[in-house]
Specification:
Blueprint: E1 6-10, E2 14-19, E3 27-30, E4 33-36, E5 50-51, E6 62-65, E7 68-69, E8 72-73, H1 76-90, E9 100-103, H2 110-123, E10 128-132, H3 134-141, E11 147-152, E12 157-163, E13 166-167, E14 173-175, H4 179-192, H5 202-212, E15 229-232, E16 238-241, H6 244-247, H7 265-275, H8 281-285, E17 288-291, H9 300-309, H10 312-315, E18 341-342, H11 350-359, H12 364-367, E19 369-370, H13 371-377, H14 381-386
Parallel strand pairs: 1-9, 9-10, 11-17, 17-18
Antiparallel strand pairs: 1-2, 2-3, 4-5, 4-6, 7-8, 10-19, 11-12, 12-13, 12-14, 15-16
Length: 387
């Protein structure tokens, strides 16, 4: 592990951290920080910080803080405390001996990027730093450098076209609807049906319901004879759902269900394809790469395919395509429409995997920002080296 690059994907709800070149992260935990309450009996020497889901079991002693919101840093003090606890307590190392690859949202402000750079080099003393786009890393994990990444997480969905490793941010789209909106709708549906969840278990029960029962309908207007889906909680409560199982995640394609006026995921994706240069459009449409936990719902890839197939002719997607490239693809869809959705089973963690691959490249040391470069150029090194 000596001098190995630390790879950290810090999302709004989940953080994955490990060593560049490894096939999986060393630790995966909730992006939540517990700070000792002022009334706690700990002395200054005894103060510890909790990170991860264990925080929820100690709310009487610790206050809960969320360092990230919408993949952007919400509070730099919380962020720094979380990062320090993660590196020293969970990765069992010190920052000074390792380069750091950290995911940074493509929508992060320049001011926040500069503040982050200062913390990385001045507070933590990392020897080198690379701020990586989550979308690009997800694409690397899929084994290609060209495509459109649909990254749907807890707080939002990001759609980014990438051509030969270069992001095209001015054609990207962001939808302010994600997994937590599915959770909110599911919670309301349970209340309306008379179910009562214990406060201590509600979070885990809703998470399990989402992963085990919820799905995306290919066409929600034609769903008939919806089967009853049953789920038994850890404390013995049986929950039975019918249409609620697909109506809750439908918010990802119909944001108005959450009071959001934006277009849904499929329509925004079609908008991105319609705006990119016509010469690269077919190549992008062949590799629509899904990433993030909110793309795991059964039926999600098929819904994307179906929606784009309806507009494929007008977008001229099927010209100059190599149809043999689809021969090993096991998903649904009419490939001669020019649409292929890549939905790897490990896509919830594909961003970290892409970061691990990237950090292990022999050229990585030529791409990151070294501490010497930062000391010479200050925060201006971001413009010189990253753009």
């Amino acid at each position: 592990m000596e001098n190995a690059t630390l790879v950290i994907d810090m999302g709004t709800s989940t953080t994955r951290a490990g060593i560049g070149g490894d096939s999986e992260p060393m630790t995966t935990l909730s992006t939540v920080l517990g700070r000792p309450r002022a009334s706690s009996s700990y002395s200054d020497e005894e103060i510890n910080f909790f990170i991860g889901s264990n925080v929820y079991k100690n709310t009487s002693t610790y206050s809960i803080h969320y360092p990230m919101s919408g993949r952007s840093i919400k509070d730099f003090d919380d962020f720094a405390t979380f990062l320090h606890t993660l590196v020293t307590g969970h990765l069992n190392t010190s920052p000074g001996g390792h380069p750091l690859l950290l995911t940074v949202s493509p929508t992060e402000t320049q001011e926040n990027r500069e503040a982050l750079l200062q913390i990385i080099f001045e507070t933590f003393k990392f020897p080198a730093f690379y701020p990586a786009s989550p979308n690009t890393l997800a694409l690397y994990a899929s084994g290609t450098t060209t495509g459109i990444v649909v990254d749907s997480g807890e707080s939002g969905t990001y759609i980014m076209p990438i051509f030969e490793s270069y992001s095209i941010p001015y054609y990207s789209e962001r939808l302010d609807v994600g997994g937590r909106h599915v959770t909110d709708i599911l919670r309301k549906a349970l209340i309306q049906r008379g179910y009562s969840l214990r406060p201590g278990t509600e979070r885990d029960v809703l998470s399990e319901l989402k992963s085990q029962i919820c799905y995306i309908a290919e066409d929600p207007t034609r769903v008939q004879d919806v089967p009853v889906k049953a789920f038994v909680t850890s404390d013995g409560l049986e929950i039975r759902l019918t249409s609620q199982a697909f109506l809750a995640p439908e918010v990802l394609f119909k944001p108005s269900m959450a009071g959001c006026s934006q277009k849904g995921t499929a329509l925004l994706l079609a908008d991105v394809l319609s705006r990119v240069d016509e010469d690269i459009r077919p190549a992008l449409a062949q590799n629509i790469v899904l990433a993030g936990g909110s793309t795991l719902f059964p039926g999600y890839p098929e819904r994307i395919e179906r929606a784009l197939e309806d507009t494929a002719a007008s977008l001229n997607l099927n010209r100059s395509l190599n149809y043999s490239s689809f021969s090993n693809y096991s998903g649904g869809g009419n490939y001669r429409s020019g649409v292929r959705v890549v939905a790897d089973s490990g896509r919830a963690g594909s961003i970290w995997v892409g970061g691990s691959i990237f950090a292990s490249l022999s050229t990585f040391s030529q791409l990151y920002i070294s501490r010497d470069e930062y000391e010479e150029e200050g925060t201006g090194i971001l413009q010189l080296k990253m753009y």
